[in-house]
Amino acid sequence: MDVTASNAITRINLQELIRLQADARALKLPSARPARARQSGLRHSAQRGRGMAFAEVRRYQPGDDIRSIDWRVTARRQAPHTKLYEEERERPVLLLCDLGPTLFFASTGAFKQVRCAQLAAILAWLALAGGDQVGGIVFNGSTLSVQRPARRKKSVLRLLDTLASQQRTSLDNTATDTTLDSALGEARRVAHTGSQIFVISDFLNITDNTPGLLGALARHNSVNALRVVDPLEQELPHSGRFAVAGPEGPVWFDASSHSFQKAWAEKINRHEARLADYFRLSGVQATTVSTRDTPANSLKLILGPGGRIG
Fold first, then answer.
1. What are phi and psi of 72, to 5 degrees?
2. Between residues 37 and 168, the one the model is more confident about
3. Residues 198 and 123: beta-carbon distance below 8 Å
4. What is the pLDDT at residue 279?
5. Above 60 in pLDDT, residue 123?
6. For position 3, what pLDDT does the model report?
7. From which residue to which does the signal peptide run (predicted)?
8. Could you give the domains of the chain?
9. Looking at residues 159-174, what average pLDDT do you find?
10. Contacts for 298-303 with beta carbons within 8 Å, 24 or more apart?
């Protein structure tokens, strides 16, 4: 399904998020091979995410990996013993989805809040199809909703309903402390060790506490940042007068003003450098997704073969 052909430009409803299951199925087809992305992908060390769970200890047999020898049992029983592991069959996938005031915007494609909801929906369907548990934290500046991971279609539908119902329809001054930092703090309480965590946001409201919160999550989990941006946020047009919505009404600017262009570029460069440092310090993989691109195409560049998460 071509999402941009739908009416989901400023807001997306539950039915449209459910229909994105078809996009998830298409990503899992063998022909949906990942292309080489310019940004960092979503690959992590095998020591995180889906791993190996301890099963039992038995006597060492020729061909066993000597790195798996249990030296305490070997010393106690005076005979070599090795640990056996089995692959974990499911893994919690936690989706943090930002629908805050800064995401109620786009100059092309669809609003950032729509793209965030679409990315979260496709990832939720992919995780469920892969046998993983799915949960989420949805926050919009005034409300924060938490759903613990579970491996049931009903849980995915409940998460999609939250994504649809908590999208903003206007800019207002009712924002509380349900920001990115508060969501990251909540994720630390909800996530089990070894979880796959996706933070889907525009990351415009980062603070000095953000890298510490991201790093605390990344120490025991696989954390990926999907940063949704609009082309206008990266580079202004070179001429013309434009209006941007603000809390107190539209704000006009003259793109032909050299001083305005310079001040804008400096602000963007400072934020980009700061955000890059935060991702580097916290050990989080980051990928940029544009509002002009469909989420399925964006994810195709960063998922593993057959739409594999992680």
1. -70, -45
2. 168
3. yes
4. 96
5. yes
6. 42
7. none
8. 3-45+91-307 (3.40.50.410), 52-87 (no CATH)
9. 80
10. 298/119, 299/27, 299/119, 299/122, 299/123, 300/27, 300/32, 300/34, 300/35, 301/34, 301/35, 301/36, 301/37, 301/41, 302/34, 302/37, 302/39, 302/41, 302/42, 303/27, 303/34, 303/42, 303/126
pLDDT in tens, 190-214: 998 889 999 999 999 999 999 999 9
Total number of residues shown for the chain: 310
Judge residue 63's burial from the number of C-beta atoms within 10 Å of its C-beta, 0-12 exposed, 13-18 middle, 19 or more buried. exposed
Give the torsion sign (CA, 166, 171, 105, 137). negative
What is the structure's pLDDT at 96? 98
**CA Rg, the chain, in Å?**
22
Distance CA 192, CA 259 (A): 49
Token pair of 284 as six digits: 């989080």
Number of Cβ atoms within 10 Å of the Cβ of 22: 13
Q: How confident is the model at residue 87 (pLDDT cuts 50, 70, 90)?
A: low
